[in-house]
Amino acid sequence: MKNTLKYNTLTLAVCAALSSTAFAQEAAPSDAEKKAKEKYEQIVVTAAPGGATMQEASVSVSSFDENDIVKLAPRSTAEVFRALPGIRAESSGGGGNANITIRGIPLATGGSKFLQIHEDGLPVLEYGDINFGNADNFIRYDWSVANVEAIRGGSASTFASNSPGGVINMISNTGEVGGGAIGTSFGVDYEEFRLDFRYGGEISDDMYYHIAGFARGGEGPRETGYNGDQGGQIKFNITKMLDNGHIRFYYKNLDDKVSTYLPSPVLVKGDGEYGPVPNYDASSQALNSAYNTNISTFDSFGNPENRDVRDGIESKVSSFGIEVDLEVADNLFLLNKFRTSDISGGFIAPFVDGFPTGPGDVSNFADALCAGALDGDGNALNCDTTTVTLANGPGAGNAYSGQAFTNLQFDTRINDLGNMINDFSLRKEFDNGVDLTVGYYYSNQEIATSWSSWQTFIQTLDGSNSQMLNITNGDGVDLVSNGLLSPSFLSWEWDLNYVTTAPYMNVGFELSDNILIDASVRYDTVEASGELINSCCGGNTDFDINGNGVIEQIEDASATNSGFIRGGVINLNRAGAASQIVDYDANNTSYSVGGSYLLSDSQTFFARYSKGGRAIADRLLQIGGTLNQDGSLTSTTSGFDTTKQLEVGYKYGTSDLMINATLFDTVTEDTQAEVTSGLTFMREYEATGLEFEGRWNATDNFVMAGNLTWTDAEISSDVNNAAIVGNTPRRQADWIWTITPEYVTDTWSVGASLQGSTEYYVQDNNDLKQEGYTLVNLFATYWVNDQFSVALNVNNATDEFIITESEEGSAAVGSYVRARPLNGRTTVLSLKYMFD
């Protein structure tokens, strides 16, 4: 009797991890042999014509591996990307919620609008700036990654959808080189523990596998009062080699929670200089609190529910993929990449809002709240006196006279950001030097999220476990009860679907041994459907929150608090909410033309001109006048923003010295909506710049690597605000750089990563700015033997206080702004054991 056994992918992964002794480890190239292949000789596999090496390709491309990344002392995936030339990766939000852009293309809001983040050649999300669903929230760097490869501009416009600025691709280890490692790391000056592992090798002569992942727990790099970084990831792939190519299966499971840090009070110390406010250091503390972790709130339809602030950014991903790479006939190559992903989670964190008076003395809050309040009959309240007391924590019930802030609790459930993506292509190499690629891309992206109630609290401004406050007027009316000012500030229910299809074609010509040119075109079509139901600002239904049988001030939907917020809770019924249908098709044609001149084996000149598009997706619904009542597009938008880029570059690469230089000129359209300020705009930006990237093996022991980017950018037009035309876009510095010197011996290595920027304006009005800075990250490794090593790395060793963004564009010295600073100094000790 023949038994047929069926294994799911996770079962295979576990078996691979636990049964390594059953797998025959055939002879494989050593790590040293694999790394001997210089980077400039590696084939470019990301968003570029096939078959070209990094030296030959007429695009700006960078690549680095685990050894390069560890020198950056990264505390998040976004910090890994900061080493790429021309990339601005602002990682001030913690383990996710980063802002990422490239080459002077605007960083108008969160996420990575014009730059896609890929895993193994397919996007994590079709759109990198989904509200509360940034792509970096659902990806983690760990030892499953063999290389990080980035294409800046160029062919990214035509070899990927919605990524005219470029593509960052995290390429997985596949187990071709056998062996593994296990390691632990500990926060020396903050609370975090992490375990990483990887293992791979041959199952048989024609089959190999790789499994890797991590698990972690701890408070994270800032004091929150609780363990907010909890979870892990496992990734597995198995490859079957065929006579004419390979078939590879991928599986990933991510279940992780990280604290995220939103703009909070920062002191303006001087022109471009910032620091902590009394009792609160935003670079090392957070306004999250052990006293305020569990909150009783309401869903979008007015039903009571409990939420745990400790969930922070909750990321749940289960994905399965297949890659088929075959030579199906003589010089005819088929490549198909497929992945389906279930993606869900949440986003909850305190945001310091500006009402009623912004962060400051609590007496200002009490007086302003009372003056702006009306009872359910429209009558003003008695504001002769007000009383403020602590509502919870130490000293509960005692009078409070310190500083306070308004916490607008960003509370979003990620119901479904799942997608199914397939990229199919055929490439034919002809004898006359012509190379033809035709392909078809399909993506189905869900965007289903719930912005539930977004309660508003008044709390003490304290970095060591902020407490809730009670505020009453002279008649004993609760203006704030147990910290609660508004039970339901807003509720938005998103249920959207975007289907993208894109046929594309590339023709390459090898005119001679040293002249290569190519031209490509892509036609993207987006079919958008769904609905947004929303209500703001305050409730439309009375609700007895404290259960005393009386509808009080903040429970009364007819009452007004803080000048404009209704009491009660929101019930998103059709009669009491706004609705926007989405039902439109949009299309865009992208193209790219480039060429390389190989002056020698080590020198290349290249040039390229590209035009690419980015579908605007969910943020289009926040911009008035862009959609008709029936969901079709109005004449104000095509549904796409475009980017045009011209680049001219030079590459020099040998085993000892690598230098890349690229001159670029970029024009970008941007239709955008900002959640925190409510700002919407339609703009055009222009940028000219120069990228340098280099690596110098000065001696057998000393290596210097780095990059430097100069950018001259301006806002060239704005439909709504002509006053800012000609200004420098927010957060755009003239120069950014990463320089990494390292000294290596047989038993130890030591080095530093210097990451810096010249000054930049924090808002588009070009008033308030952050002065220039250099962050010093230190790293050292000691190899006890060939297998066991101990490493220490320090991020921001000099403990610089640097803000990446601010809600305010102008402020006087001595005042507070709401800003996001980079982490202060953090230190990690790591132990790693490698084995065959």
Kindly describe this structure.
With 836 residues, the protein is mostly beta strands. The chain has a 26-stranded antiparallel beta sheet that branches. The model is unreliable at 1-37 (pLDDT under 50). The protein contains six helices and 48 strands. Strand 12 and strand 13 form a beta hairpin. Keywords: Cell outer membrane, Ion transport, Iron, Iron transport, Membrane, Receptor, Signal, TonB box, Transmembrane, Transmembrane beta strand, Transport.
Helix content: under 10%
CATH architecture: Beta Barrel
Work out the strand percent: over 45%
Low-pLDDT regions = 1-37
- Shape, principal axes of CA atoms: globular
CATH superfamily: TonB-dependent receptor, beta-barrel domain
CATH class: Mainly Beta
CATH topology: Maltoporin, Chain A
Radius of gyration: 27 Å
Average pLDDT, to the nearest integer? 90
Largest sheet: 26 strands, antiparallel
CA-CA gap between termini: 38 Å
Compute the number of strand runs.
Answer: 48
What features would you highlight for this structure?
mainly beta, Maltoporin, Chain A, 5% helix, globular, disordered N terminus
Write the layout of secondary structure elements.
Elements: H1 9-18, H2 31-35, E1 60-65, H3 66-70, H4 77-81, E2 87-90, E3 99-102, E4 115-119, E5 122-123, E6 129-130, E7 133-134, E8 145-152, H5 156-159, E9 166-172, E10 179-187, E11 191-204, E12 207-220, E13 229-242, E14 245-258, E15 264-270, E16 273-275, E17 294-298, E18 304-308, E19 313-329, E20 332-353, E21 360-361, H6 362-371, E22 386-390, E23 403-416, E24 419-429, E25 434-451, E26 456-460, E27 469-473, E28 478-480, E29 484-486, E30 490-512, E31 515-536, E32 560-561, E33 565-566, E34 578-598, E35 603-615, E36 640-653, E37 657-673, E38 680-697, E39 702-718, E40 735-744, E41 748-757, E42 760-761, E43 769-770, E44 773-783, E45 788-795, E46 803-806, E47 816-821, E48 826-835
Parallel strand pairs: 4-9
Antiparallel strand pairs: 1-8, 2-3, 4-5, 6-7, 8-9, 10-11, 10-48, 11-12, 12-13, 13-14, 14-19, 15-16, 15-47, 17-18, 19-20, 20-23, 20-24, 21-23, 22-27, 23-25, 23-26, 24-25, 25-30, 26-29, 27-28, 30-31, 31-34, 32-33, 34-35, 35-36, 36-37, 37-38, 38-39, 39-40, 40-41, 41-44, 42-43, 44-45, 45-48, 46-47
